[in-house]
Specification:
By secondary structure, the chain is an alpha/beta fold. It is about 25% helix and about 15% strand. The protein has helices spanning about 20-25, 25-30, 80-95, 130-140, 145-155, 165-170, 175-180, and strands spanning about 5, 30-40, 60-70, 70, 100, 110-115, 120. Strands 1, 2, 3, 4, 5, 6 and 7 form a seven-stranded mixed β-sheet that branches. A hairpin with a 2-residue loop joins strand 3 and strand 4 (about 70). Helix 3 packs parallel to helix 4 (about 130-140). Mean pLDDT is about 80; it is low at about 145-180 and about 195-200.
Amino acid sequence: MAIRYSNQGATRNKPLSPQLAQALDFLPELGLEIEVFSGGQPAKGSGGARVGSVRHDHGNAADVFLYKDGRRLDWSNPQDVAVYQEFVRRAKARGLTGFGAGEGYMQPGSMHIGFGNPAVWGADGKGANAPDWLREAYYGAGGPGVASDTMAALGYSEAPQNALAMDQDQAPQNALAQRPEPPRFNYLNPDDFKTTARFAPVAGFT
């Protein structure tokens, strides 16, 4: 069985939602099993026993260990990192959006997986503490930095990569050609001001 539970005595003792369980149907392809030690919980405000993030509500997230060939994996083991990264890539492709792991976050080798605002994080639940291997697996090489993770965790959409180019694309293709022409003036000929009138000299002036 690819998913097994050890959360019977935990506050978050509910199973994964059907949607999350189905999204993990790729596990056998990688030869992996996951152990759910913290699963679903009642929704916020329902009065049921719950703790922490709303991501776990209705079983839409879980805290898990990964196993391969009966051995619990650990992201601090360089030989296991590639497996974690492939798991994250596959899970993201299947619709999972939130991943947390790393030194100082939960237990060694554990990982938060599930739905919710797209983000990765590490110790203290901060995007700045997400380990490099997790950031690379989620975003790819050269992906967004810490600021993008923080904005995503807060529920904001990322800004366009080239907002200036977007604004320019929305402008007329030939704005200069569409600018109204300046008014035309009919300039007078200086010769029009010449006069043949002669004036008598004023006394006291020469």
